[in-house]
Amino acid sequence: MEFEEYVSARGQELVRLGFTVSGDYQRAEDLAQIALMQAFRKWRKVRDADDPHHYVRRILVNEYLSMTRRRSFSEAPTADLDPQHTVPDHATGIAVSDDLWQALATLSARERVVLVLRYYQDLDDQTIADLLGIKPSSVRATTSRALASLRKARTSHRVNEGLK
Questions:
Q1: What are the pLDDT digits (tens) for 99-113?
Q2: Which position has the higher pLDDT, 158 or 147?
Q3: Nearest Cα to 100, choosing from 126, 73, 79?
Q4: How far is CA 160 from the centre of its chain?
Q5: pLDDT digits (tens, 9 = 90+) for 37-57
Q6: Model-level pTM?
Q7: What is the pLDDT, as a whole number, of residue 10?
Q8: What's the domain range around 140?
Q9: Are 110 and 129 contacting, i.e. CB atoms less than 8 angstroms apart?
Q10: What's the CA gap between 132 and 118, in Å, rounded?
């Protein structure tokens, strides 16, 4: 597969992944572009990998996690959606809910990435562990903590709504 073919086939999927982890369409485009630039520089190595898409996804996820560590990237995802820039997808209808975005914004970047890879990308523990360079048990623990935080936020939201 040539690089141009890969971009045509998987480019929008990378943007959706970037959007789902960051909550910001412009940041998602930047993440996809950075991942594709890095993949292009090493295209022979990427193309010859067992799963080139896995390789590029890992670049994107690592770049997102690196961005969150930088001082200039301290704000939470905004999920400021522009209908012209969203790609129709069955999961988008669920993920776009304002309550969900607010709850996801309370999670750490790593927790958000693990949940996105697990439930949006439908990846197993071992694949997520490979992408993040951690152990599968760490993936499970992070998933458990993140889901507990979301449940707590949901319960808190219900209590606050009841007080109004």
A1: 777 778 889 999 999
A2: 147
A3: 79
A4: 29
A5: 999 999 999 999 999 999 999
A6: 0.69
A7: 95
A8: 3-163
A9: no
A10: 12
How deeply is 74 buried, as exposed, middle or buried, from its count of CB atoms within 10 A (0-12, 13-18, 19+)?
A: exposed
The CATH number that applies at residue 53 is 1.20.140.160
| Axis crossing angle, helix 52-69 with helix 125-132, rounded to the nearest 10 | 60
Say which residue the tokens 């992408």 belong to.
Answer: 131
Count up the domains in the chain and report the number.
1
Distances from the Cα of 152 to the Cαs of 65, 114, 148, 159, in angstroms?
24, 18, 6, 11
Mean pLDDT within 80-92 = 52
Q: Tell me the one-letter amino acid at 110.
A: R
